[in-house]
Amino acid sequence: MTGPALSLRNLSKRFGEKLAVDALSLDVPAGSFFGVVGPNGAGKTTSLSMATGLLRPDTGQAFVLGTDLWADPLRGKQKLGVLPDGVRLFDRLSGAELVRYSGLLRGVGEEDVRVRTEELLDALDLTSAGERLVVDYSAGMTKKIALACALVHAPRLLVLDEPFEAVDPVSGATIRSLLTGYVAGGGTVVLSSHVMDLVERLCDHVAIIAEGRVLAAGELGTVRGGGTLEERFVELVGGGRDLSSGLTWLRGRP
Ligand SMILES: Nc1ncnc2c1ncn2[C@@H]1O[C@H](COP(=O)(O)OP(=O)(O)OP(=O)(O)O)[C@@H](O)[C@H]1O
C-alpha cells in the first residue's frame, strides 16, 4: 500500500442553512498517527462520519485504503475500524457479546473471535464487566467496549472520534499504548481530540479544521511551526474571548 490510507476529496455536508463541511479534502498517509483538531462545531464529527460510511456526503468522495467508500461501502467498511461520536451500541448485549458479534459480523472466525474478545477485554480492563449489559456501563466503559468492537477484526485503518473522552487516566494510558503499538505494526490511526497536549504527544500528523475547512494539515512539526500546537491553533482559529467585563452577575454582589 503506497497511497494514503484515507483520502477525502471535496467532501461537503449541509444541514439546512448550515454548511457544516465545505469541500474538505485531506490525505492521511498510510502508517501515520493523524490527529484532527478544531473548535466546537468545526465539522470534525461530520467529516469523520462521512469518511467512515456513517453519514452520506452531499458531494465528494472518501477513499479507504484505495476503496471508494460510498461506491463500495461493504468493501470499504471491512478495512475500517470506527469509534463513532456519541456511540450508539446494541446495549442490551453484554460487553463480551457485543465484541463477539462485531467480530463475527466483520467475518472473523469463531475461534479467533473468542480469543480476541478475551484479550481485548483483558487489555481494556473490562474482563470483570464482560458479562454485564452494556446499557449498565459507565461512559468510559462504553467508550472502551466500543473501541474493542472497532479493533476486533484487526482493520488496517482506525478512525476514532474523541477516543479519550470520559476515559480514566489509567485506561487512557492503556489505549495510548495499544494505539502506538498498532501504528508501530503498520496500522493507521485517525483521531479527533480537543486535547492539544495529547495530540502533540501521540500524533505525527495533524489537521486543524474550522468552519468545515482544513486550515492546515501535514506533519506535526511543520503545522506547529516554531511553537506549540495550541499556539498554532489559536493563531489560525482565533483566541478566546475576554470576559473580564461581562457576566458581572456571576461574581456576587459588591
Ligand atoms: N444532524 C445535524 N443536524 C443539524 N446540524 C448539525 C448536525 N450535525 C452537525 N450539525 C452542525 O454542523 C456543524 C458541525 O458539527 P460537528 O459535530 O461536525 O462539529 P465538531 O467539530 O465535531 O464539534 P465538537 O468539537 O463540538 O464535537 C455544527 O454547527 C453543528 O451544529
TrEMBL record:
Superkingdom classification of source: Bacteria
Domain ABC transporter residues, every copy: 6-236
Signal peptide, first to last residue: none
Predominant subcellular localization, coarse grouping: membrane
Alphabetized PROSITE patterns for the sequence: ABC_TRANSPORTER_2
Cross-referenced Pfam families: ABC_tran (PF00005)
Subcellular compartments: Cell membrane
Alphabetical UniProt keywords: Antibiotic resistance, ATP-binding, Nucleotide-binding, Transport
Gene Ontology MF: a single term: ATP binding
Alphabetized CDD domains for the sequence: ABC_DR_subfamily_A
Membrane topology: Peripheral membrane protein
PANTHER family on file: ABC TRANSPORTER ATP-BINDING PROTEIN, DOXORUBICIN RESISTANCE ATP-BINDING PROTEIN DRRA
UniProt name for this protein: ABC transporter ATP-binding protein
Organism: Kineococcus gynurae
